[in-house]
Amino acid sequence: MPSTRSTIGDFSILPISIPPLPSFPKPTTHHLYLRRNAPKIPTPDDSRSLFIINAPADSTRLHFRALFTALLGAGRFESVTFEDERKAASQALADLLIPAQAARLASHSKKRKREEDEDAQHAREEETARLPEPWSRPLRRSGGTAVVVLADEKSVEKALKAVAKAAKTGKYPVWGAGGVPEQDRTLGSSWIRSHVRLTYPDKAAAEAAVDAFFTVYNRREREAAELAKRLRSEPDEDGFVTVTRGGGRTAPAKREEAEEARRKMVEKAEKKREELSNFYRFQLRERKKEEQAELVKKFEEDRRRVEAMREKRGKFRPES
Amino acid sequence: MAANPAKRRKLGPAGEASMDQAISVAVRQPTTFVLETDELLKESRLDYEKTFEGVDDLLRRIKAAIESIEPHEPLPIADAAKRLKKAHKIRVPFPEPAPPKDSNYKLAYAKPDAFNVVGSYVSKTMVRTQDDRAVDMIVVLPRAVLQEKDYLNMRYFYKRAYYAAHIAAALHREIGATASLEYEYLHDNPLLPVVAVTTKRMSTKKSKKINEEDTNANAQPQAEFRVRVIPCAPDGYFPKQKITAAAGLIRSGGDEDKKTLHPPTPFYNSTLKADGSFVLYLRVLKQAEKTCASFGDACILGRIWLQQRGFGGAVSRGGFGHFEWSVLMALLLQTGGRKDTAALSPSLNSTQLFKATVQYLAAMDFCKKPFVLGQAKEALDAIREPGPVIYDAVRQLNLAYKMSASSADMLHQHAKWTHALLNDKLADQFTSTFITKVDQPSLMYDLNASLELPDSHTDVSPDPRGKLASFCTKVHSVLKRALGNRAQLVSVGTVALPRWTLSQHPAKPAESRISIHIIFDPANMSRQVDHGPPAEDKKDAEKFRRFWGEKSELRRFKDGSILETLIWTSTVPAEICEEIMLYILPLHLKTTANSVSLTFYGRGFSSLVPASPADPAAFAAARAAFETFEQDVRGLEDIPLHVRQIAPICAELRNATVNPPTFGTSKTAPKPMDVVIFFEASGKWPENIAAIQRAKIAFLLKIGSLLEEAKRDVTTHLGLEDTRSELENLAFLDVVYESGAAFRLRVHSDLEEVLLDRRTKDKTLDQHTRTESATLLSEFRRLYTHLPLHTTMIRTYATRFPALSPTIRLLKRWFDAHKLTVHFPPDLLELFALHVFLSPHPWPQPSSATTGFLRVLFFLSRWDWRSEPLTIDTSSQSNLTPDPDNNTSLSPPLDPAAASTRLQAWRNLDPAMNRVVLLAATQSDPAGTAHTTLNGHPAPGKVVAARMTALARSACRVVREKGIEIGAPDAGRQLLFVPSLNDFDVRIVLDRKVLKTAARVWEGEDAGSSSAARGDDVGVGLATRKFKNLDARTGSMPLPVGTHPASLLVEQLSRAYAGPLVFFRGAEDDTVVGGVWNPLVQRRSFRVNLLGNYKPAAAGGGGGDGDGDEDMEDGSEGEEEDDVVEVDREAIVAEIARIGGDLIERIEVKGQ
């Protein structure tokens, strides 16, 4: 059934027909919502990319390539980025890698700008430090978003037109057709089996990733230590010297000692207080008064509770 | 007793003192309990005006009718009865045995001596929930028609029956039009037929008037009350010294004057005495009311307490009802204390009176020793009876004459339980004492059975209660002796006697079955060998042999003693007890085994959980495997840090899985059991959470390679967690033994907790990061603190309560059956089960899985989790032994008030219950969320928790309706364990075969290969294995499967469709996944970041729905009215079908 509408808000609607499966033998339609990409923080590729809502949960790059090939013809599709991937990318490993102290210091010193080649090197390091993914094909969140980058601006224009046409004529592109290999159209047991296998990576590879991680981590820590040293001796542009802690941190053993000392102090204070209470008569009187008030308070509380119970029906009726 | 007077003296005042103390404490501060009981009294008081509208008028008419009866001269008994029948068509309800036709007794009629209204109508102590509201009116037989010797051979009762028939005739004539008349036995006592007048619907005019009043008041339907007209003997007419308990007054041998020994007839005698003391007791009660202001209220409390426990004045209901309670209390206000002082003070308030009376009942065992109130003038022999005795010395009557040994036992136990409860400050005393319906056999007893009265049973004693009653007594005494200390309580009961119309013969009991209920003592019930007396002790041995028959055999034991011994062949505790019953009953009831039709209820559930005797062994084997593993790890030498502890955290290692753990073979994949490892505190951990996680991987790899080196039969696999963040635990180590035992090891780092805690509390970080840290921290604590403690706790209690482990397993089976399991952490279900063991009030701890399970359901059905937290207090041992002296607490008790406050705070903070739904506070986790939240989400969520409550409620309703039948084979399973799949909007049927293959994955298999090529892959895997020394069989063991493929699929689906669809799934072998559309997420106005798959709403529906919340991203120019979208259900289902692929056989959608 051709949809009655072609747009919603500033999004175009692209219905996609879903072929039936033996387990659910009913042809259905899925709705994609597209518009030109206009993120809050612009990127160079914005003009030739489309922003998509409601990407199917089983979306892959292949699916989207096939979809846009069907709409625009071959060679127009460049790449697709899914919501969760963009999030993961923003949480760069590098930021987590900085030892705690270095992170604190970085906020003090005006950091010099990272150089291009250094960034590239970091990216390489991160790649080796990353652990393998346990899923061969992650599921997308249902109703999630994606950004599709096409060959050029013209393609975006054409794509939107093709979408409008498809919606009007009722000739919907088919999901998972064309370039998608047969076995990738459904996930099923092979997907689960591959997950079980991927859960257990090669030990050597895991070890290498851990080693790579600690290479970077140790270098950072060293750098941070050096920075701390430098900051201790060098005044900044206003002439102030930053106060930093010496080296290392308190070991757990020392922490325990500190805890013990604190406990002793509290005990001492407690004892002192104890000695001085009930020393004067007024203290005794006040204590008695307090006790009485406490009793009254408790009684009030109880009454309130019973009141609340009464409001709930049946609390005071013996069950039959 | 007399041999040791010092001891007695010591015991007496101690009891008094503790009571005094309790009373003075209660006086000083009114507790919640007092306030609650006050409220209860207010609620249950009856509006007498309304309920008994017109009763005075009716009573007057009855009196007039009776007074108008024409007296007549003595007539032979047969003639008199015949005349009555002829004139009024009314049969005289002569008690059994009916007088012989040729008897020359003479019956006369004269005007009654007096009329009086007695009972709880006069004292105004009826309650609303009482099922039988009757006004008792006594009619005193005139001395003129009686003779002193009438106490013999039922003569009095024949006269009384004749009198009753005359009254019935008169009433029938006078008020038969407006009321219906029936005979009934007073308190099911077949000697005492009375006339019951039940008001009919009132005349239209009158009822209209009342209905008009009623519609405003909206009270219960216009009451139909009853008036019982009770003929009785004049006060003190019969010589009491002649009708003592030991006297035999039914003399069959014709000649009455001969001093032959007649068997004593205590029940007959007491009935005779009681029939002459209505007015006496009325005076006693009036006196008590006058002296003690709160006497009436205490009577009402007693009535409710008895009523909730199924007690009543009728013989079939235990013979201890409101009347006995109030007389006992009235007498205790006068006497009963030391040196004949009053036991109770009239200045006590109603709750104190109630508590003290319960304590009295708990302290006294009427069966063992006659309990005499006041100074008895008679010898003890004249008081003692085979049954229970509460002897009122002044009125020379055994108040407990209607009780049987069984019911006295039960009353004693109930009083003991309630007494223990009232001393337990942390329990909900009020609800358990007065509100809960205790008398539900399937919840209360561990074993329910019924027994047919065999035809061959003959009554030797002339007990007027009939064959069935004497049969009950016999069965009770046999079972009590046979089970000994295996049972805490043996109760044998019958059904009530019905009423019958005026023209019929007296009613017979409706059925000839008796019901047997037993509460076991878990400590003793599993004993397979019973030791009797030694062979040298000829007398005892002979007695023992006579009781046990051929079963008893002489055996010589290791310590040289030669004892009479019984050997039972069953292995399961409950079966041993059944075996004993099946052996001993036919032996003593003198019937063949076949003719005793003993039916057991309560074993029907056992087939649901494979509770074979091998189970404990399987769990023990898992435990042993764990211990081996622990030793192996501790034995490693080159680990950089010293191992402090290895703690199990999985249900297999705390005896709490539905199926006992079986170790994988080469055919099935090993299922790893979760454990965590703790190292000594170290300063070497990097001060960065991500780095700590990596360091843990290094640790695991090290442990893995060391283990593989040290132990030949161990394979290890490093596994990755399915995580989103680098801050979470990243990896685990699966250690697989050749035997099939597998463990999943995770490393604890103390610094991680410190860092996470610091990150959570760091105010300079943004809210999102802090929330994330808080979630990670709670997960950390759950994994490394709460779960190890929980495992230890459950293990400890599983040994202490043998029924706990099967209860947990049955409960988990129920959650599986209803597909709720995926939403509940297993530890939470275990806490539910533990709760009914730790606070079993008002019952004792369950000692069978069925009882335990039904009580958990009962608890769940009543748990108002919206406003009540679940508190599980493991600090006090008081609930183990009801003895208050043993009330030593190990750690500070958990404060239930604190948990309530916390729940209140959560509800204020999060009224929609998005973060916390259930709150379960334990000793180790007073905050109460460790077991009810997972990854920052409530587990279960609100919808699921509500579903649980609804299911538990309907289950409890079925249990109530079915009574003990629920335990019959199949009934329990079919009624409680079959889910109604029609409830689910979507049903995903998984393919069992594909699942099975998906669960077995071998190392080295090509990631892209399909399952068809598996055989080859194994070969490849073997060829490329590093360890040449491992043989082919080891090499072909599949990779461990921590999560079943179906669970993985459901997990992934739930993650993808967190908004619109909620999935339900039970056990691993459950192949149907249920899905319910979330009713809150249906139609939405369109925007970015909607959860779930949406399609534009159908044009017609999109009227004005959308303009409510128009929060479009970056201001849309096309301000259309109908930007409404709705959940695209079909597209979602189609997506699921694609994701499930060959795992899904078919998807059924509701309504298609």
Description:
The complex is a heterodimer of chains A (320) and B (1152). Helix content of chain A is 51%, strand content 12%. Chain A has 320 residues and is of the alpha+beta class. In chain A, strand 1 and strand 2 form a beta hairpin. The longest helix of chain A has 31 residues. By secondary structure, chain B is α+β, with helices and mostly antiparallel strands. Chain B has 35 helices and 33 strands. Chain B is elongated. The N terminus of chain B is likely disordered. Classes of the chains: A alpha+beta (320), B alpha+beta (1152). Chains A and B meet through strand 1, strand 2, strand 3, helix 3 and helix 7 of A and helix 2, helix 11, helix 16, helix 22 and strand 20 of B.
Per CATH, the superfamily of the domain at 31-238 in chain B is: Beta Polymerase, domain 2
**Rounded radius of gyration of chain A (Å):** 33 Å
CATH class categorisation of the domain at 31-238 in chain B: Alpha Beta
In total, the number of strands of chain A is 6
| Global outline of chain B | elongated
Helix count, DSSP H or I runs of 4 or more residues of chain A: 10
Low-confidence stretches of chain B: 1-17, 22-28, 203-222, 877-890, 1006-1034, 1100-1121
Protein name (chain B): U3 small nucleolar RNA-associated protein 22
GO molecular function (chain B): RNA binding
Organism (chain B): Coniochaeta hoffmannii
Main location (chain B): nucleus
List keywords for this structure.
heterodimer, A: 320 residues, six-stranded antiparallel β-sheet, B: 1152 residues, Beta Polymerase, domain 2, Alpha-Beta Plaits, five-stranded mixed β-sheet, disordered N terminus
Write the SSE topology:
The complex is a heterodimer of chains A (320) and B (1152).
Chain A lengths: L6 E2 L2 E8 L9 E9 L12 E7 L5 H12 L4 E6 H8 L2 H5 L2 H9 L7 H14 L14 E7 L2 H17 L18 H12 L3 H31 L18 H25 L4 H31 L9
Antiparallel strand pairs in A: 1-2, 2-3, 3-4, 4-6, 5-6
Chain B lengths: L4 H24 L3 H13 L3 H4 L3 H13 L4 E5 H12 L17 E4 L4 E5 L1 H4 L10 E7 L14 H21 L3 E7 L7 E7 L4 H14 L8 E7 L33 H10 L2 H14 L3 H14 L13 H11 L17 H14 L7 E3 L6 H4 L6 E3 L4 E2 L6 H19 L5 H7 L5 H4 L2 E6 L14 H17 L3 E7 L19 E8 L8 E6 L3 H11 L4 E4 L5 E6 L5 H16 L9 E4 L12 H22 L7 E6 L24 E7 L9 H22 L3 E7 L10 E7 L4 E6 L2 H12 L5 H34 L3 H14 L8 H13 L10 H14 L7 E3 L23 H14 L10 E3 L10 E2 L2 E2 L3 H21 L8 H6 L9 E5 L1 H7 L15 H10 L8 H4 L9 H12 L4 E4 L7 E6 L5 E3 L8 E3 L27 E4 L1 H12 L3 E6 L3
Helix pairs in contact in B: 4-7, 5-7, 10-12, 11-12, 11-13, 13-15, 18-20, 23-24, 24-26, 25-26, 25-27, 26-27, 27-29
